[in-house]
Specification:
alpha/beta, 4-stranded parallel sheet, 15 helices, 43% helix, binds adenosine monophosphate, binds zinc ion
Length: 462
């Protein structure tokens, strides 16, 4: 059974769904005002791996990932009444809806290229405004929220559990820790906006009982998670920066409305860094999957790179590391293709011990570095029958999602087999000049040959 570190309890716990066999999972999704960067993808990968691990154990997972196509105010933007969506719309001379539609498509394409399994639903924040308003109304009714001048705030002092997730309890939250002056009309400086009055230039706004306005980012996720998954959610994922305030506030809102705990397990991935700084749009150190591909590294090389670190450790991106991952991927794929071609019989030892160790690592809080180490040991174990290795690695890859059998079954172009045999003969005769010429000829046909201790192996350059 899979055990994961629950941010709420700060311990590693078995992930036991409330309904046996069925897992409800909510994944904080992207803000669609720009391309996702590979740091965002690292966080989404955590959810994908959790899901694949649970599915490998035979559980049915219903995963919902929201698309934030409204708002997503940060502190700096908050007071100016601007949000990232609107700033992008202005910069790109498009309507906010056009921006959102364009980057939603781009996100879904990136997710597919990165082998993230599609979620069961992708609720758009813009389509859940009535549900958000309903929650705000209920919070006002029950005294957990108050309105001042068209803004509705959540009263953190009304929710005794505030701070349980992040450790930012009210005593520890000092006044003035934010960069700007808090709204003087707020009762407590940590009170946060559920609904914000629209300023005169605001393009995207909705009528509400509190005047024209728009929702806060946190209420979006409460509304969408309750509406799509109900009042009991087994696991909720996000990046470490979501712990506070986003998820702390989501807990306060949702639980103040329903009156009980909603999410059992919170899982947060650590950030992807470049030169020790968080990869982010604002810092300008961000890299999209497109840019990576333009520089000759495939999306799955980045996926392998991320798998080489534990999700709970920060990871520095380097070009050397992603290049190394690309090479490893190429090597593994040609190994699998070679095993598939190898007719050697199956009377070697079984792969059972490797498989047991692989899944034990996965179950141990998604210990992907150890799982990959087991894969590499299996790769190096020449005592195993090729067909058994291929079958085992294919099972591993249902979790890893690296398309390791992408080259299995590929046929050599006409004439290449004869050239490979000729080259082997040249090498046996120590005629290395001839062997090199033959290697070049094969390369022009798209066939790359590598000499290994076990003989010549080849792969097709696509
Ligand atoms: P955003 O599109 O900005 O709402 O971010 C989407 C997700 O990516 C959130 O869950 C963030 O926690 C996560 N995220 C943002 N920056 C990074 C980073 N550098 N490394 C890992 N995850 C990140
Ligand atoms: Zn969220």
């Amino acid at each position: 059974m899979l055990a994961v570190t629950n941010t709420l309890t700060r311990t590693k716990e078995p992930l036991r769904p409330r309904t046996p066999g069925q897992v409800a999972m909510y994944t904080c999704g992207p803000t669609v005002y720009r391309y996702a960067h590979i740091g965002n993808l690292r966080t989404f990968l955590v959810a994908d791996l959790l899901r694949r691990a649970l599915e490998a154990d035979g559980l049915a997972v219903r995963q919902v990932q929201n698309i934030t196509d409204v708002g997503h105010m940060t502190n700096e933007e908050f007071d100016r009444g601007e949000d990232r969506m609107l700033v992008s719309a202005r910069l790109e001379d498009k309507s906010p809806a056009e921006i959102a539609a364009y980057y939603t498509e781009a996100f879904l394409a990136d997710a597919a290229a990165f082998n993230l399994q599609p979620a069961a639903a992708y609720p758009r924040a813009s389509e859940y405004v009535p549900q958000m308003q309903e929650l705000v109304a209920r919070l006002l009714e029950s005294g957990h929220a108050y309105e001042v001048g068209g803004n509705v705030y959540f009263a953190v002092e009304s929710f005794p559990g505030y701070g349980r997730l992040s450790g930012n309890t009210l005593e520890r939250l000092r006044a003035g820790h934010r960069q700007e002056e808090p709204d003087p009309r707020k009762r407590h400086h940590a009170d946060f906006a559920l609904w914000k009055a629209a300023g005169p230039h605001r393009l995207v706004k909705w009528p509400s009982p509190w005047g024209d306005g728009y929702p806060g980012w946190h209420i979006e996720c409460s509304a969408m998670s309750l509406a799509t998954l109900g009042e009991h959610i087994d696991v909720h994922t996000g990046g470490e920066d979501n712990v506070f305030p986003h998820h702390e506030d989501e807990i306060a809102q949702s639980e103040a409305v329903v009156g009980h705990q909603v999410v059992t397990t919170w899982v947060h991935g650590r950030h992807l860094l470049t030169a020790d700084f968080k990869m982010s749009k604002s810092r300008g150190n961000f890299l999209s999957l497109r840019e990576l591909t333009e520089r000759g590294r495939g999306p799955l090389a980045a996926r392998l790179l991320f798998l080489q670190a534990r999700y709970r450790s920060p990871l520095n991106f380097t070009w050397d590391a992603v290049t190394g991952a690309e090479r490893t991927l190429e090597r593994l794929r040609s190994r699998l293709a070679a095993w598939a071609r190898d007719p050697a019989g199956g009377d070697g030892p079984g792969t059972g011990a490797y498989e047991a160790r692989f899944w034990a690592a996965v179950h141990d809080d998604l210990d992907t570095p150890t799982a990959l180490a087991v894969l590499h040991e299996l790769e190096a174990d020449e005592s195993l029958a090729p067909a058994a290795r291929l079958a085992a690695v294919r099972r591993f890859d249902r979790f890893l999602g690296l398309d390791l059998d992408a080259e299995v079954g590929q046929a050599l172009p006409a004439g290449a087999e004869a050239l490979i045999a000729e080259r082997e003969a040249a090498r046996a005769a120590r005629d290395f000049a001839a062997a090199d010429r033959l290697r070049d000829r094969l390369a022009t046909m798209g066939v790359e040959v590598t000499d290994t201790r076990a003989g010549t192996s080849w792969r097709l350059r696509i």
